[in-house]
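Why Heterokaryon incompatibility domain-containing protein? Reviewers of the renewal asked for a concrete example.
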Amino acid sequence: MRLIHCHTLQLQEFHGSQTPAYAILSHTWQDEEVTFADFCRGAPSEAGAVPERWKKITQACKLALAQGYEYIWVDTCCIDKSSSAELTEAINSMYSWYAKSNKCFAYLCDFDLSSGSSDARQQFLSSRWFSRGWTLQELIAPEELEFYDSSWNFYGSKASLCTDIANKTGIDEGVLRTLGQDLLPSISVCQKMSWAASRETQRPEDVAYSLLGIFGVHMPLIYGEGTHAFVRLQKKIIKSTNDLTILAWRAPRDGIGEDKNQDYYGVLAPSPKYFAESRDIVLSQDLIYNPDFSITNKGLQTTTALPIIEDHPNESEGNHFDIVLNLHCHHHSRPQEPLGIYLGPIGGSVYGRMFADEMPIEIGRAGLPESLIFLSIKPNPYPVSKKHRAPDPGYNFEFGFTYRPATGKSIRVLSTYPEDRWDDFAFKAQDTFSFIGINIYRTFWQNTTADFVLACGFHPGFEPWVCVDREESDLWCAAMDRDHTRVREISQTRQGEKLTLENEIVLSIKLEFFSNRWIAADIYADQPQTPSLI
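Here is what the prediction returned.
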């Protein structure tokens, strides 16, 4: 990094452990700032009058010297911005540079203690410094931070003004009172995003780039990509943590950028503004217990159960039901109310976010199987109305099995799972949004026996399915392990196949839809020469 030598106003470059103790300046840019090119042309001499635009630099150097520091870093002139490689390195390193500084001076050019204002506190908190994107990391990272007004009069330190700053910014006081980097990993992603919700940057890409250090990630700079930089940032964060609160945002209620209640949203937020109402959302459990999730070319992939909740009944439209993804978080004061987001099936195990101005309370359903799903990152233009929010979980699906063995053959049920869904001939699954049933059968013929497994189920986005396979098969092993995801994967690729058991009985299953959307699967046990009845 380059530092300004405070005595000579010359730039000097240092590497790693050779870097001396230094102060650092935090400020908002004004119309004329001293640049790296200005330093290359030569700083003003001590004998001559100091040009107006150099006064911020010279005053910062005097302050650093007065506190015992020979070097200071200033962003406007210590980075050669004509070099894209250097600019990328500097922005990715900036948080650590502020964190490693011995003292940070925050210069508030629009705050004047000598103005005679009766409420200096209000004037201080109204400074533009508190609304800029880059100054967020400059507030959190340094251990020692002092505030100065436009005439370089000392106003107070971060430690002494901690409560006022916390109330103004929404940043946890613990982060401000201690080293921010020590506490940041324990704070939910959505809460950290909320700190930037009301901040602005001159270039849209800097909304994302100014948050790199807060989240401990690095990424290349692509000026010209616009707001997509914030999407890239979220993808980087997802690669570094399984904190699902990155999805805990709400679309602004004035409908910024989206047509509410009409289209599926992507699950990533378009801007930090969407996290404005997430300031008090905290993690409900240690991240080690959260499901893993990752970015794929099909969307955000995770394995989870998808419980449902019943929406408020409407006399004209009837009851509505919604798929809810549990984000394993809650409002700080309401730990008994786990939060989630509404999802709608798009197809192929892909879901989009619905009604993104809402975050419902998730009500878990014990025993629901987990499923591999993908969450769409891009908005999908499939119109949905509140009246058709999601399929009614009362599918009336019922897997009823009848046994039709040929003469001299018989079939017997040995075990069934889940037992509370089985009533001697059918699985009852009307009140659930996804289901997997497993039965183990034994066939008898000519004093020989053979066991087989039958699996059936349904899931949002998939047609109901049923499959049979012999003992010790992949399906059998997955069923014995209660590996629902594997059972479903195998079954959905094997539907409609015939099966010949060791006692030479040929099994086949017929899946049909009946009135009221019932499903029946008939098990046929035939001799090998008998034509298939599927």
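The chain has three domains: 2-186, 225-392, 398-526. This is the kind of structural detail the renewal will allow us to pursue systematically.
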